[in-house]
């Protein structure tokens, strides 16, 4: 998969994704995978509790590695992510804490007050973090809801190396 395309087309949608070793997939390959999924396939992924959990955990783990401390500078902010569930899946909550040139991610809701909370469905979340959607367009079309510091939310993408599909 060194060129970012080998094997991606052969994943077989969500079934192929279920058997994927996420640790071996580059951010660019992940972006290509998400780009190739239909809305129906993303909905199917969101219904598979185990697969959804694996995908969300991998995405948030990668946020720490793809954080750009040079761009964040002295920024201190707690960002809460609420990925709305559907069917039997409950809402997933993660927090990214940016401070002192680091980004720390944790699953679940802390007692701390976030500077900004982003609320979005599974499909929109995957499209956003894989570089397959414009954050501004998503906000304008209400596919992402923001509570708190809208300016911080608008600039979040510059603090992370987001792949382009």
TrEMBL record:
A GO CC term attached to the entry: cytosol
Protein name (Swiss-Prot/TrEMBL): Acyl-CoA synthase
InterPro entries hit by this protein: SCP2_sterol-bd_dom (IPR003033), SCP2_sterol-bd_dom_sf (IPR036527)
Residue span(s) of domain SCP2: 69-160
Pfam families: SCP2
Domain of life from the UniProt record: Bacteria
Native source organism of the sequence: Streptomyces kanamyceticus
């Amino acid at each position: 998969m060194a060129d970012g395309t080998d094997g991606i087309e052969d994943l077989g949608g969500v079934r192929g994704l279920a058997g994927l070793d996420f640790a071996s997939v580059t951010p660019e390959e992940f972006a290509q995978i998400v780009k190739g999924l239909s809305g129906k396939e993303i909905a199917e992924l969101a219904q598979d509790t185990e697969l959804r959990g694996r995908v969300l955990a991998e995405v948030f783990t990668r946020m720490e590695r793809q954080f750009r401390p040079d761009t964040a500078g002295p920024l201190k902010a707690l960002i809460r992510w609420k990925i709305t569930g559907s069917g039997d899946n409950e809402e997933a909550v993660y927090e990214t804490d940016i401070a002192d040139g680091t980004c720390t991610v944790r699953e679940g809701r802390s007692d701390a007050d976030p500077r900004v909370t982003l609320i979005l469905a599974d499909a929109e979340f995957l499209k956003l973090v894989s570089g397959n959607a414009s954050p501004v367009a998503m906000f304008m079309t209400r596919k992402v809801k923001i509570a708190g510091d809208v300016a911080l939310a608008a600039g979040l993408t510059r603090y992370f190396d987001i792949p382009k599909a």
